[in-house]
Amino acid sequence: MKKIVVVCDSREPQARAVTHLTEQVCSQYDWAIERIHADAVLLSDCIGCFGCWVKTPGLCVLTRDQGNDMARTVLSGTHLVFVSRVTWGGYSASIKKCADRMLPLLHPDFRKVNGQMHHIMRYPHMPRMLAVGYGAVSPSEVQCFRTYTAAHARNMDTELGQRAFIWPEQHQDPEPAAYTRWLSEEVCA
User: What is the pTM assigned to this prediction?
Assistant: First the structure.
């Protein structure tokens, strides 16, 4: 059975709309869904100590928050969907904080992928990563988001390719048919 883990900022109307559409697709296909509300999860900032690699392999050394629980939830999914406002071509601050705290899922050693250095996976199964962006204000910001999320996906051992879905207008509501078709195709691929 497929399990979709959605990381979103539930304060954002567009993120709520995308999450609702995702729930509808999951219901249609009988897929499980679990939401991580980036704005509500108790997370400290990653301090870049790499303790999750050498002191407590696979676990963040910051244990007074929900970071390790979040990482376990992510690892339990078959797919991981980041839903984020495009901010300077990347994730919003709350989504980026969640992404940073997934560092324990990676191994400290590297491998070369298409001439770039990327992490070796700590675990044999990683969820297939997808990204949904909204609020991009220019074509260059859209391209930057696609490049950024593709590199992030490679670090999660997923080839993102064109698997970033982006709403073209800053304040445009999600187009349900286009999004649900995209999500269905990506999850079933």
Answer: 0.92
